[in-house]
Design a protein that fits this description.
single chain, about 375 residues, alpha/beta, Muramoyl-pentapeptide Carboxypeptidase, domain 1, Aminopeptidase, six-stranded mixed sheet, about 15% strand, globular, binds zinc ion, N-acetylmuramoyl_amidase_3, N-acetylmuramoyl-L-alanine amidase activity, N-acetylmuramoyl-L-alanine amidase, Peptidoglycan-bd-like, MurNAc-LAA_cat
Length: about 375
């Protein structure tokens, strides 16, 4: 898909289409045939939509917003749903299907609105249970069965309970775990720049420091791109890579920027939106641990953790987090980022957070005191 970017003042058929979609979602009240200008009302509606969906709120329809806007039109039953390996179906109907399967006690993995292999398996399982041909395709008879069945799981979050249980069963040893480290940007895309630094180089170096430490604890580590690699990967390609490795966790590394040089601090993001039942429980926990460890060991400002539906977080089938480690445009954040010792401290914080994910609560040592030697013996 070619890059999309529509904003204030743009006109044409694409804008008319965007207005129609926003109207269908009740965010705009155009009467047909509507105007075809991207005005302040559209901008406001787009912001509201981005806020609701956990996207970055810009008021601009970029490629991701455009796609999510398109996904929002589907209602359960509008189309056949099945697992398409090369290009998985995504939309609000898939999300509704996953929620329903979850209530019925089937394991769909993350409720993310993407019809992946596990959703397909859950559909087969349902079909076997109700005596339908287990072909994994949701058509009229499967929709009917979904309507008919009463939920067997009430209260709580069956998906997060299942995720926590899987985590507990995985054991607390780091050895045998697989972690994907994803240094953002690369190739011709150097990411954010400022104070003589560029984001791509900083996160590349940090990634190799994390990789070395994880390897020492027995974790198998994959990098989405090596230092100095000249390939540009989009978020989908990075997610696909992570899924292919069968990783337990994904850590994506970025450095933020702002036109105001005062903006500073570290924030960590996990999969989740404002719609109920869509948050990755393990992702949220992992993000919280990373944020805590980094804040405890450095003097970066704590910009907290936040749910987002960014592509890498959504299309990965395991818990994934994205760290925005300081602002490259802030003089003192940049000075820290330039310091090799600081990068080592952050790398250690991240490795300790990885271990803490697997430590059953109660055995969890207080933040900031666990060292790598302890982990190797755990
Ligand atoms: Zn970045």
């Amino acid at each position: 898909m070619t890059a999309v970017r529509y904003g204030l003042g743009d006109t044409g058929p694409a804008i008319a289409e965007i207005r129609t979609k926003l109207t269908l979602l009740g965010l705009l009240d155009d009467t047909a045939p509507g105007p075809s200008t991207f005005d302040h009302d559209v901008e406001h509606a787009v912001r509201q939509f981005q806020q609701e969906r956990g996207l970055t709120v810009t008021g601009v329809v970029d490629t991701t917003t455009y796609r999510v806007l398109d996904e929002a039109r589907w209602r359960l039953g509008d189309r056949l749903l099945s697992y398409v390996v090369a290009n998985p179906q995504a939309g609000d109907d898939v999300l509704a299907l996953q929620r329903r399967l979850c209530e019925l006690g089937f394991d769909v993995g993350q409720v993310d609105g993407v019809f992946g292999a596990r959703t397909g398996e859950a559909v087969r399982e349902l079909q076997r249970n109700v005596g339908l041909t287990p072909d994994g395709t949701c058509g009229p008879s499967t929709f009917k069965a979904l309507d008919r069945l009463a939920p067997i799981v009430t209260g709580g979050r069956p998906d997060s309970l299942r995720a926590s249980e899987a985590l507990r069963r995985a054991g607390k040893r780091l050895s045998g775990k697989v972690v994907v480290i994803d240094p953002g940007h690369g190739g011709d895309d150097s990411g954010n720049v400022g104070n003589g630094l560029d984001e791509a180089t900083v996160v590349e170096d940090l990634a190799t420091r994390i990789e070395g430490r994880l390897a020492a604890t027995g974790v198998q580590t994959y990098l989405t791109r090596g230092p100095g690699s000249d390939t540009e990967l989009d978020e989908h390609e990075r997610a696909r890579f992570a899924n292919e490795t069968g990783a337990n966790l994904v850590v994506s590394l970025h450095v933020d920027a702002h036109h105001n040089p005062i903006a500073s601090g570290v924030a960590t993001f996990y999969y989740g939106g404002n719609r109920p039942g869509t948050t990755s429980a393990i992702g949220e926990q992992f993000a919280g641990l990373i944020q805590r460890e980094i804040v405890a060991r450095t003097d970066l400002v704590d910009c907290r953790t936040h749910p987002k539906t960014w592509d890498l977080l959504r299309h990965t089938s395991m818990a994934a987090v994205r760290i925005e480690l300081g602002y490259i445009t802030n003089e003192s954040d940049a000075a820290r980022l330039a310091d090799a010792e600081f990068r080592d401290v952050v790398a250690e914080a991240i490795v300790v957070a990885v271990q803490r994910v697997y430590l059953p609560s109660g055995e969890d040592a207080p933040t900031g005191v666990l060292h790598l030697q302890d982990l190797a013996e755990a």
